[in-house]
Amino acid sequence: MAADTGQAPEGWVPVEHRWLGLDRRTFAAGFTALAVALLLIYGFQGLNAAIPWHNEIRAGQVLDLGDGATAVPPVGWQLEHGTLTGGAGAAPTSLQILLASGGATIEIDGTTYDGSADAFLDQVLRSEGDTANVSGSRGSLTTDSGLVGVVESSTGPSGDAIDVAFKMAVGTTESVDAAPALLVRVRTAAGQFERYQDEVAALLRSITPGATR
Amino acid sequence: MTVVPEEKLAQRQAIVESGWGWPYRFLQPHNVAFWVYLLGVGGGALTMLRYFGQAASFYTPALAGGVVLFALYLVPWLLLLRHHNRFTKQPAGLLATGFIWGGVAATFWIALPANTALLSIWAKIGGTSFAADWGAGLTAPINEEWGKALGLVLLIGLAPRLVRSAYDGFIIGAFIGLGFQVFEDLLYVYNGATQLYGVDQLGSSLRVFVTRGAAGIVSHALFSAIFCAGLMWVLGRSGERKVLRGVLTMLMAMFFHFAWDDMGGLAGGSWLIAVLPFAIAVIELVALFYVLRHAARQERFWMRELLGPEVTAGVIDPALLDAVSGLRKDRKKYRKHLHSRSKARHLLEAAGDLAEEIARAGGADSPGVAHARAELLRVR
Questions:
Q1: Which of A69, A131, A175, B294 is paired with B97 by a 20 to 30 Å CA distance?
Q2: Is the predicted pLDDT of residue A132 greater than 60, yes or no?
Q3: Which of B31, B147, B160 sits opposite A40 (nearest CB)?
Q4: Backbone angles phi, psi at B259, to 5 degrees
Q5: Which residues are bridge partners to A174 per DSSP?
Q6: Is residue B300 one of the residues assigned to a domain?
């Protein structure tokens, strides 16, 4: 008598294809996709971690802040993002520069903002909400080229921080308000800022607006 | 003994080879591809929540504006891709699975960490100027094209009978690419708002929408459609493996992605930057339709074989068969032949319905086939 094989239930896996409850016929597609995904995600991260930075700032090199604006970075720091003058060129309103040395970082970001440097710094801090750091007093700073910046420092368990906001122009209130904004953020481990104070101060003093401003 | 006519055999062969009519089921606990898919989408969703969650409340206007604008942007895209999901068309559930992979897993699980790492590697190897000029174009075509194509590989694991031809790869790739594009656009909306520290958030969303929306016409959906069609040629799942053609097609998609991302570097600061976007877009569209025509060959053949017995039975005339299994120019010719655009459209849709019912019934007669046949005769 011929046995009635009937209709296999949905999702039925023949016994010879089973392994730990899984269908072995699906291994090729599933594990190939998993292997390639893990290679892309962790392979590049591992390779990145294995390659050290060799982009040290040398004496005489100058950062391009876009539209002719410049700053002199501290010698020996690693330039991890951003370009030097004579390079690819930078846009002042979408500028991103990152310098690192030991555990300290200096981030320089350019953007558009209609208003004073003081109001710009308020907007930046508002956008980040409340932080764990204890806020310090706000002061002002004038660069060698006459740009006036607003400085706010803070300290807390996560480290020392200094934020300096500039409007990249000198002159009438109207022209300063309409100019691009620049934010310099310095971060160090707690109690370590003093080690970098002179280098940071020299960088801040060297910030120069473009000739057209 | 029953003699099965040759054309009926060919019809059944086409149904088996194309896999058309097989149901798509997402929930498959015995399938490894199902678990890898969940891992990818779950990992992507967590990364996405962490990314947007940091300051989501402050950037709500930008994000809400971006979601609304790009949801509207999806509508014409879905209509266009629905139009191209012809011949042995893919089920909506399968296409939605691909879309979610592209949007959540490929973007946030794979591309976000992989791109960050590879961009940093280029800066370390070639310096920050080199990375600024060429980093994006040397990164995204690798991580993003492969990340998206993994969605197709997983769909092959989830629906091996349904994903067979290069045209299947083309359509599924377009949906995966569309998902990637829209979710990446939301990332750009968020980044654009943070770049401005939350000033004029709706205006910032609108600007990103205009620029990314326009660029999106020849972006991820196109790259992935081409790349995945090439991958299907390499895999040769419809029986005919074309490795060289497949590899060249995949490389072409990666090259388009490179050219689009590194346009600034290619122009070298010259006037070319004003011309390149349009020149690259034209070349990409020509290549897209070239790939589409070649990828559709197998499907058109299956369609002819599937409806062959209906021609013999007099339900479908040869002109309608040419049109329903043909390209745009064949459908245009049929419209002219009938002197009625609406009648041609009705007949083409009815013939497509009949083919689908025949495939679903495995070539047998079923109430669905009888109804679709009657409908075709009614509108004829």
A1: B294
A2: no
A3: B147
A4: -60, -40
A5: none
A6: no
**Cβ of residue A200 closer than 8 Å to a chain B Cβ:** no
What is the structure's pLDDT at A2? 46
Residue range of the domain that includes B187: 24-278
Which residues are CB-neighbours of A34 under 8 A, at least 6 positions away?
B32, B36, B39
- Residue B164: partners with Cβ closer than 8 Å, 6 or more residues away: B17, B18, B19, B237, B238
Tell me, yes or no, whether A31 and A97 share the same domain.
no
- Say if the Cβ atoms of B128 and A83 lie within 8 Å: yes
Give yes or no for A51 touching B (CB within 8 A). Answer: yes
Is B232 at the interface with chain A, CB within 8 A? no
- A77 — contact with chain B (CB < 8 Å)? no
In this complex, which of B121, B123, B143 lies closest to A81 when CB atoms are compared? B123
Chain A contact set for B266 (CB, 8 A): none
Output A17 or B228, whichever has higher pLDDT: B228
Q: Is residue B227 part of a domain?
A: yes
What is the number of structural domains in chain A? Answer: 2
Closest residue in A to B127 (Cα) is A55
Give the total number of structural domains in chain B.
Answer: 2
Complex-level ipTM: 0.91
- For B95-117, how does the pLDDT look when each residue is reduced to its tens digit (9 = 90+)? 999 999 999 999 999 999 999 99
State whether B182 and B262 are in the same domain: yes
A45 touches chain B (CB under 8 A): yes
Please list every residue in chain A whose beta carbon sits closer than 8 Å to the beta carbon of residue B146: 36, 40
**pLDDT single digits (tens) B221-244:** 999 999 999 999 999 998 778 999
Mean pLDDT, residues B298-309 taken together: 93
CA distances to B2, B40, B44, B114, B303 from B310, rounded to whole Å, are 20, 44, 48, 52, 11
Q: Do B342 and B261 lie in a common domain?
A: no
* B281 near A CB under 8 A: no
* Stronger pLDDT, A2 or B60, i.e. the higher one: B60
Does one domain contain both A28 and A93?
no
Q: What is the extent of the structural domain holding A169?
A: 63-206
Q: Report DSSP state, residue A193.
A: H
Whether residue B184 sits in one domain with residue B61: yes
CA distance A19 to chain B (A): 9
User: Is A45–B156 a contact, with Cβ atoms under 8 angstroms apart?
Assistant: no
Mean pLDDT of B301-313: 93
In angstroms, what separates the C-alpha of B26 from chain A's closest C-alpha?
11
Interface of A with B in 139-198 (CB under 8 A): none
Return the residue matching tokens 């053949």: B301
Q: Which residue of B has its CA nearest to A29?
A: B157
